Amino acid sequence: MAESNIGNIELQSLLYDFYGSLLSDSQNEVMALYHEDNLSLSEIASELGMSRQAVHYTLKKAEHALVEYEDKLGLVAGYHRSQELAAKAREIINGSMPGSGEDGDKKAELLSIIARLSE
User: Fold this and answer.
1) What secondary structure does DSSP assign to 10-48, as a single string?
2) CB-based burial of residue 112 (10 Å sphere; 0-12 exposed, 13-18 middle, 19+ buried)?
3) What is the pTM of this model?
4) Does the first or last residue of the chain, that is N or C, have fewer Cβ atoms within 10 Å of its Cβ?
């Protein structure tokens, strides 16, 4: 997977947002506590009554599964491509269309459509 422009933790969080529901219950719980609640491995272990090593293993196994899902499905890569294309379209519209009159209305409508497509 070639997502070199974002950090590993940010990438794992994004993968979790897209594919978290595909994980097992225990993997999902550990990922949520780690990425959403920002707990340390020791804190998660204490909260779940597990060893720190078991939490680490579960987290790594879940992260590996998320990368495999992305490799097969490519939803995050597609999301990034859509966001990049939307940004380029906005730049073109803002640079080439006046902001008033009928063209201004068309510009506003196009920007609104791009915003909805890139949500």
Assistant:
1) HHHHHHHHHHGGGS-HHHHHHHIIIIIS---HHHHHHHH
2) exposed
3) 0.73
4) C
